[in-house]
Amino acid sequence: MEILSQMWSFLGLLTVLQNVLPSQLLTCLHLLWESVQDSLSPYSYFEIPEFNGYCGVDVNDLYRHVTLYLNSLDPAATCRRLTLTRPKNSTRISFTVAPNHSLEDNFSGHRLWWTHHVDTVQDSLEEKRSFCLKMPKRDRHRLLPAYLASISTRAEEFERVSRERRLYTNTGHGAYESGWASVPFCHPSTFDTLALEPSLKEEITADLTAFANGREFYHRVGRSWKRGYLLYGPPGSGKSSLIAAMANFLRYDVYDLELTKVSDNSELRALLIQTTNRSMIVIEDIDCSLDLTGDRAVKKAGRGSNGEDCGREEEEGRVTLSGLLNFTDGLWSCCGEERIIVFTTNHRDSIDPALLRYGRMDMHVRLGTCGYHAFKSLAGNYLGVEEHPLFDVVESSMRAGGALTPAEVGEILLRNRRDADVAIRAVISALQRSILEGGGAGPGGVGDLTDVSRESDDTGRSDGGDERLWLDPPAGKRRKVGSSWERRVRSLVRLKGLTKSDSGRRGV
């Protein structure tokens, strides 16, 4: 009781002194007490406020990095209380250290502690937030720079793989801040589900990985950290699916640029400035977007001898070829980092060569008809089968000249997905039909393939009319012995024999 009485007396004396002594003297005494504590403590403390300065406007980027870094840790064993949050329209749950609680971390064999301070501003509803880092004092000069660099690197990586990605489209008001409108990017295409030959998949993924990890390389050689891809091939060959797979692989946002909504070159540059780092800028069907990729010599020859058409593009105020070239590889293309620009087209020859040169479009990827390995990937995705006796017939049909795009094969498998035998036989029939039509996809596209699937009965066998289709020459054409058409018909007869013999063995 005597000790408690003395303590109460001491606290009362402190209260009296606090009311009597000047505030300047109390501040000096407080600083002196903190200095004594710091000299006796084996730890150093570093505070990281949420905002730079005192106005609460300039966000401290290091505070954001610490928040992301702590989210990347496993906090269950090192923190007693966490605050869990989930952004709207997102499935990812994030956490922050609860106010005035600590989280333990380890770096280079040393224990460190993070404390999340949250203080309410007097006479205000606002809160003052900061992180306090506690580390051993004797190693602070060696640990602090390396630790902060590690935090920034890990935070950027965590933000790249965990943030909600968006699909943007230009609104036609690129000269303003809201030149893009966006929705969540949820396309399911990946390189695991993509119908591509394995060698092409490996080449593209290796190039994307090298690009994403090439910050130091691009800075060292003095090049903008960007890369251009040209995807070309017939409709249905998987260009859009490949773009989605690339975006999912890199965890990038996608900006789908519609050139017909862009009024002039200035608006095009404004749209470029508004895009973020770690993004893909896509212009689909570049040869059809605007009349700016044709042969410039032909255009020049079509003008009048008095040059009346000269400068018409600038007078009309529309996007020009020069503006698009500067957009992809000019000075304005350097206003951001880690960007991929993708052009798609069905006809590469119709694009101006200036757009295709290396430095603008570094990778030219041709997507053609469905190969055997791509077909097996589609069969695994749609039918759930990895091997099937009719796969050899499919491969033989492709070698004989049968050609279908991945979209056409996917549509056939989708319509017949309840029965793998029927689905694969329908693909074989479509391949044989493409051989008679001269190879490649027919003009009807997927619509023609729908008719093929309807001509097959429940067992997957064609009726007598289909037999005549394979053996009779097209109307109006004379059958020549030894011609290429004759060889195709003979190969089809052999393929039909293989299919029927396989059906007999299976008891169909």
Can you list the strand order of the major beta sheet?
Answer: 8-7-10-11-12-9-13
Number of extended strands: 13
Query: Class by helix and strand content?
Result: alpha/beta
Tell me the helix content: 40-55%
Mean pLDDT metric: 76
> First CA to last CA: what distance?
101 Å
Give me the Rg, rounded: 34 Å
Shape descriptor: elongated
Strand content: 15-25%
Description:
There is one protein chain. β5 and β6 (127-136) form a beta hairpin. This protein has helices spanning 2-20, 23-40, 61-72, 140-162, 198-212, 215-221, 239-250, 265-274, 286-289, 296-302, 312-316, 321-329, 353-356, 372-382, 391-399, 406-415, 420-436, 446-455, 464-471, 484-506; strands at residues 43-49, 82-85, 94-97, 101-107, 110-120, 127-136, 166-170, 180-184, 226-232, 253-256, 279-283, 339-345, 363-366. The protein is built from 20 helices and 13 strands. α16 (406-415) packs antiparallel against α17 (420-436). The protein is 46% helix and 16% strand.
Write the layout of secondary structure elements.
Layout: H1 2-20, H2 23-40, E1 43-49, H3 61-72, E2 82-85, E3 94-97, E4 101-107, E5 110-120, E6 127-136, H4 140-162, E7 166-170, E8 180-184, H5 198-212, H6 215-221, E9 226-232, H7 239-250, E10 253-256, H8 265-274, E11 279-283, H9 286-289, H10 296-302, H11 312-316, H12 321-329, E12 339-345, H13 353-356, E13 363-366, H14 372-382, H15 391-399, H16 406-415, H17 420-436, H18 446-455, H19 464-471, H20 484-506
Parallel strand pairs: 7-10, 9-12, 9-13, 10-11, 11-12
Antiparallel strand pairs: 1-6, 2-3, 4-5, 5-6, 7-8
